Amino acid sequence: MSGDAPVEMFPLNANSGLMKNSMDTRKVFGLDIAALTREAAVDMLERRIRERSPVRLAFVNANLANIAYENAHLHGVLRQFLLLNDGVGLDIASRILYGKPFPYNLNGTDFTPYFLDQCRTPLNVFLLGAKPAVIARVAEIFPRRWPQHNLVGYQDGFFAKPDEARVIETIRAAKPDLLLVAMGNGLQEQWIERLVPEVALSAWGIGAWFDFLSDEVPRAPLWMRRLRIEWVFRLMLEPRRMWRRYIIGNPKFVLRVLRERRLAGGGM
Question: Which of 80, 115, 182, 221 minimizes the number of CB atoms within 10 Å of its CB?
Fold first, then answer.
C-alpha cells in the first residue's frame, strides 16, 4: 500500500454480480475503508439506489474491525461491502497508517438520518432489528420525521431461528430500496450478506441507531460528541455490557494498528 492512491473496489451490481468502482480507500486490517466526505457519501449512495445497483454497507468502528481481525469469515464478508469509517478509532488508525484522518466521521448513528434528510429520491425503507417495543416506536417516528420516504415494513430482531424464513419473505415482499439492519457488529453484516441483492436492493448495518432514535438509549451530550469521546458516555451508561468492548478492545485495536504499521516497514 502506498499513500492514498485509489484502489479498485467491487460493490455488488444487480446484473453482473460485481461492479468495478475506483475509490479512494485506506486499508485497515486488510479492509478497504472508503475515504469520503459526508456529501460525497450521500451522493454516491443515492446514485446507486437510482441506478438500482445493490450496495451492502457497513460502518466500521474499532469494535467491528477487531471482530473482523479475529474472524476470517466475517473479514471475507466485509470485503464485499462498501465500508465507511465510524469513530475516533478509525481516525487514529488513519493517522498512524496514512498520516492524516479520514475526511469525515461517517458513523451510522449520525450519517443515517443525515442521508434520509438529504436524499432527494423517495425510498421504500424496511427496518430490521432492536427490541419489539423499540422498533414499534421507531416505526411511529419514521413517517413523521421522513415523510418523503415510504416505510414499507419493520421487524424486531428477537425472532427465533425457525422464523428466519418468514422474516426473509416478509422483507422480500416489501421490496425495499433500503433495508436498515440493527443487530450489532458482526451479526448484522452477516444478515446483510444474506439479504442483498436477492431480498433487498441495499442494506446498511446501523448498530444502535434505533435505540437512539426511540430514546431507549440516550445519546452522549453534544460536547462529548464534539470531543469524539461518546464511547466514554456509553461505557459509563452500560459498564457491564461495554467494558470489554472499550477497556480491552480499544487498546487492542491501537496495538494491532501499530503492528500493521510495523509490518509495513514503518510507512504505507
Answer: 221
The mean pLDDT value for 242-265 works out to 95
Residue with cell 448484522: 188
In single-letter form, the type of residue at position 170 comes to T
The predicted pLDDT at position 3 comes to: 38
Amino acid at site 136: A
Report the Cα 11 to chain-centroid distance in Å. 15
**What confidence score (pLDDT) does residue 265 get?**
76
Dihedral angle sign, alpha carbons of residues 218, 115, 128, 203 = negative
Return the number of other C-beta atoms located less than 10 Å from residue 135's C-beta. Answer: 22
Of the candidates 177, 207, 210, 164, the one whose C-alpha atom is nearest the C-alpha of residue 189 is 207
CA distances for 164 relative to 66, 159, 161, angstroms: 27, 7, 5
The number of C-alpha atoms within 13 Å of 23 and in the hemisphere containing its C-beta is: 21
